[in-house]
Amino acid sequence: MNSFDILRRPIVTEKSTTQQESGRYTFEVDPGATKLQIKEAVERAFSVDVVKVNTMNFNGKRKRFGPRFAQKKSWKKAVVTLAPGGSITIFEGV
User: Which residue of 23, 42, 46, 74 is most buried, as measured by CB atoms within 10 A?
Assistant: First the structure.
Protein backbone atom coordinates (compact mmCIF):
# COMPACT_ATOMS: atom_id res chain seq x y z
CA MET A 1 0.00 0.00 0.00
CA ASN A 2 1.20 3.50 -0.85
CA SER A 3 1.49 6.22 1.83
CA PHE A 4 -1.22 8.23 0.17
CA ASP A 5 -3.53 5.19 -0.04
CA ILE A 6 -3.35 4.83 3.74
CA LEU A 7 -3.69 8.54 4.61
CA ARG A 8 -6.96 9.68 3.08
CA ARG A 9 -7.26 13.27 4.34
CA PRO A 10 -6.36 15.42 7.33
CA ILE A 11 -9.18 16.15 9.75
CA VAL A 12 -9.33 19.85 10.60
CA THR A 13 -11.67 20.59 13.48
CA GLU A 14 -11.48 22.90 16.47
CA LYS A 15 -10.26 20.09 18.71
CA SER A 16 -7.65 18.79 16.27
CA THR A 17 -6.34 22.32 15.74
CA THR A 18 -5.74 22.82 19.46
CA GLN A 19 -4.03 19.41 19.69
CA GLN A 20 -1.49 20.48 17.07
CA GLU A 21 0.18 22.68 19.69
CA SER A 22 1.18 19.52 21.57
CA GLY A 23 2.33 17.73 18.38
CA ARG A 24 -0.80 15.62 17.73
CA TYR A 25 -2.25 15.47 14.21
CA THR A 26 -5.47 13.80 13.07
CA PHE A 27 -6.06 11.93 9.80
CA GLU A 28 -8.79 9.87 8.19
CA VAL A 29 -7.09 6.61 7.23
CA ASP A 30 -7.87 3.40 5.35
CA PRO A 31 -10.05 1.15 7.57
CA GLY A 32 -7.76 -1.83 6.96
CA ALA A 33 -4.56 -0.02 7.94
CA THR A 34 -2.71 -1.03 11.10
CA LYS A 35 -1.01 1.34 13.53
CA LEU A 36 2.41 0.36 12.20
CA GLN A 37 1.37 1.05 8.60
CA ILE A 38 -0.06 4.44 9.62
CA LYS A 39 3.16 5.31 11.46
CA GLU A 40 5.32 4.41 8.46
CA ALA A 41 3.03 6.30 6.06
CA VAL A 42 3.19 9.52 8.09
CA GLU A 43 6.96 9.24 8.51
CA ARG A 44 7.46 8.72 4.75
CA ALA A 45 4.96 11.36 3.61
CA PHE A 46 6.04 14.20 5.93
CA SER A 47 9.62 13.25 7.01
CA VAL A 48 8.88 13.34 10.75
CA ASP A 49 9.38 10.97 13.70
CA VAL A 50 6.17 9.41 15.03
CA VAL A 51 6.07 8.46 18.72
CA LYS A 52 2.52 7.11 19.08
CA VAL A 53 -0.56 6.29 16.98
CA ASN A 54 -4.09 6.08 18.39
CA THR A 55 -6.89 4.79 16.15
CA MET A 56 -10.68 4.89 16.35
CA ASN A 57 -13.28 3.13 14.19
CA PHE A 58 -16.56 4.91 13.42
CA ASN A 59 -19.61 3.01 12.19
CA GLY A 60 -21.67 4.62 9.45
CA LYS A 61 -24.95 6.13 10.59
CA ARG A 62 -28.35 5.41 9.08
CA LYS A 63 -29.81 8.36 7.23
CA ARG A 64 -33.38 8.70 6.04
CA PHE A 65 -34.24 10.03 2.58
CA GLY A 66 -38.04 10.11 2.47
CA PRO A 67 -39.32 6.56 2.77
CA ARG A 68 -35.88 5.02 2.17
CA PHE A 69 -32.92 4.52 4.49
CA ALA A 70 -29.31 4.82 3.46
CA GLN A 71 -26.13 3.88 5.30
CA LYS A 72 -23.19 6.28 5.48
CA LYS A 73 -19.73 4.77 5.10
CA SER A 74 -17.82 3.51 8.11
CA TRP A 75 -14.40 5.11 8.54
CA LYS A 76 -11.27 5.10 10.68
CA LYS A 77 -9.53 8.02 12.39
CA ALA A 78 -5.90 8.11 13.53
CA VAL A 79 -4.36 10.58 15.97
CA VAL A 80 -0.59 10.67 15.44
CA THR A 81 1.75 12.02 18.12
CA LEU A 82 5.06 13.36 16.82
CA ALA A 83 8.42 13.54 18.56
CA PRO A 84 9.15 16.85 20.35
CA GLY A 85 10.16 19.52 17.84
CA GLY A 86 8.40 17.85 14.91
CA SER A 87 5.60 19.46 12.94
CA ILE A 88 3.67 18.94 9.72
CA THR A 89 3.54 22.10 7.62
CA ILE A 90 0.37 21.18 5.71
CA PHE A 91 -1.69 22.10 8.77
CA GLU A 92 -0.09 25.51 9.34
CA GLY A 93 -1.29 26.75 5.96
CA VAL A 94 2.20 27.59 4.68
Answer: 42
Fold of 3-82: Alpha-Beta Plaits (3.30.70)
Domain boundaries, the chain: 3-82
The reported pTM is 0.87
Q: Give mean pLDDT, residues 8-35.
A: 94
Long-range contacts of 86-94 (CB under 8 A, 24+ apart): 86/23, 86/48, 86/49, 87/20, 87/23, 87/48, 88/25, 88/46, 88/48, 90/10, 90/46, 91/10, 91/12, 91/17, 91/20, 91/25
